[in-house]
Amino acid sequence: MSDKNDAIDLAREGAIATLTLRNPGRLNAMTRGMWHGLRAAAEGLATDASLRCVVVRGEGGAFCAGGDISEYPAFRYDVASLRHFHEEEVWGALAALLACPVPLVAQIEGACMGAGLEIASCCDIRLAGASARFGAPIAKLGFPMAPREAALVRSQIGDALARDMLLAAGLHPAQRLLTAGFLLDVLPDAEVPDAAWRHAQRIAALAPQAARLHKATFRALAAGEMKQLLAGAYDYADSAEHREGIDAFLAKRPPRFG
């Protein structure tokens, strides 16, 4: 960790975890230490069978303003170190988030730029405040978005917005990202934390096995692996959760999952 007290913080309340990006004074810009911490946190969450939802947020009213540029001169001017940063450190963390079997709800406030946009693109549900702003103005810094990262962002925000953000350093309001289908909802700023928590509670109250299977389906569809997906698609047939959901409906009572 650096002396700026940058970190990835995890908290737990019942079946819901909160993952917080923290870099005080820098709008939670991602340091290399934070990328390592994010990967470790995501991999840990993936192994917790009791977890049902994760809220991903930034500290202090900002989601994430991008990468911490103060670190860049130390590694960006060498091909090998630059490749390692993007392919191992950044993509390692993003891939761990994408592979997480637990639903991820992004609580987006303030700046959501560059690295923040990439992290938000890994989440399943995205809620934002009306004053949130989105972009990836790295063309001003003289370098492109790494290929895997660009493909991820483009898949979530669409081609037109991705091209404007990367080619023209376009910054866009939350409403435009809502129209593009990136956001589920745009809310008054003060309401975003409660709305994200309520959404997480809704998810946590539902069938956890079904949520994990849905996430596996979405990952397989994104990778074009329908044949592989179908091979085990119905293995849940005799599971307790499957039986409980149907039995509860027929008995006209709330289901008791887990």
Automatic annotation (TrEMBL):
GO biological process, alphabetically ordered: fatty acid beta-oxidation
Asked if the record carries the keyword Lyase, the reply is yes
Matching Gene3D superfamilies: 2-enoyl-CoA Hydratase, Chain A, domain 1, Lyase 2-enoyl-coa Hydratase, Chain A, domain 2
Q: Which UniProt keywords apply?
A: Lyase
- Name the CDD domains on file: crotonase-like
Give the source species.
Pseudacidovorax intermedius
**Could you tell me which PANTHER family the record lists for this protein?**
ENOYL-COA HYDRATASE, MITOCHONDRIAL, ENOYL-COA HYDRATASE-RELATED
InterPro entries on file: ClpP/crotonase-like_dom_sf, Enoyl-CoA_hyd/isom_CS, Enoyl-CoA_hydra/iso, Enoyl-CoA_hydra_C
Named from the GO MF annotations, one term is: lyase activity
Can you tell me which family this protein belongs to?
Answer: Belongs to the enoyl-CoA hydratase/isomerase family.
Superkingdom of the source species:
Bacteria
Q: What is this protein called?
A: Enoyl-CoA hydratase/carnithine racemase
